[in-house]
# Entry
Amino acid sequence: MRAAIRALPAKGHTRRGLAAWASLPPLYHRWAMGPGGESYLVAERHGHVLGYAARRGGELTAVFVRPGAQGKGVGRLLVGAACAAAVRGGHRSARVLAARAAVGFYAALGFRAGAGARVPLPGGLSLAAVRMRRALAPKPSTPARRGGGTGSAGRPRAPTGAGRRPPRPRSAAGR
# Structure
């Protein structure tokens, strides 16, 4: 989170405001994950965290991506996964209170801007933000097919032996 905030362009934010936002203590996150009721999704590659998204019900409460991973689809995947979880939870829309610098990112993902807001920060400062909303359509249910068709993620399944390695044998011990 801190690295992502420090890499933001000022875009309607003061340097002092960004510094205060990046200074939120670990206690804030512990509260958010516990009594705050947020659930987190983490994107990682080879054991390195690239970013995370947090949500509470149909509200995205945080989406941060490390500067080196920005612009590579990580944020888009995190928002998509958070929205899919909201749909599974019965929510029909997703909301986010977007920092002004992130409005374009959310707009590109189908969120519509609403009223402006100010988010209180440590030291009596505040962050300029915009309330945004996006409708969530439940995924249509499709009958399961046997063989061929699509995999569990809805991606086309390659025919057996076509460009796929054979499965590696696993030991049956311990099963």
